[in-house]
């Protein structure tokens, strides 16, 4: 998704649009499986000066705006994925070997 589209998604929520919010949301959207805060931090900090606390705060803000949903894996770690009309609530599979969290089709 383009950064212009991401900015307009944030603007629709009537919040202050910052480069960091855009970058965190873009990293979640572009991931093909749910991501945790540490993974987001690694991806976003590659391009932007950002600290882990800001990633946490941004993720919580995006969650309360209902732009992302939280999934807790079997180890109790929170993962996040983008919410849109093409992505309704669905089950997840947590691989015990690689610890990766996969989205499963709900149908
Ligand atoms: Zn999912």
Layout of helices and strands:
Layout: H1 3-12, H2 19-30, E1 35-36, H3 37-45, H4 52-64, E2 68-72, E3 78-82, E4 92-94, E5 101-103
Antiparallel strand pairs: 1-3, 2-3, 4-5
The protein binds zinc ion.
Task: Provide an overview of this structure.
The protein has 107 residues and is an alpha+beta fold. The protein contains four helices and five strands, in the order ααβααββββ. A three-stranded antiparallel β-sheet has the order 1-3-2. The chain has a two-stranded antiparallel ribbon with strand order 4-5. Strand 2 (68-72) and strand 3 (78-82) form a beta hairpin. Helix 2 packs across helix 3 and helix 2 (19-30) packs across helix 4. The radius of gyration is 14 Å and the shape is globular. The model has no long low-confidence stretch (mean pLDDT 93). Zinc ion is lined by residues 34, 81, 90, 92, 103.
Question: Summary?
Answer:
The chain is α+β, with helices and mostly antiparallel strands. The protein contains 4 helices and 5 strands; from the N terminus they run ααβααββββ.
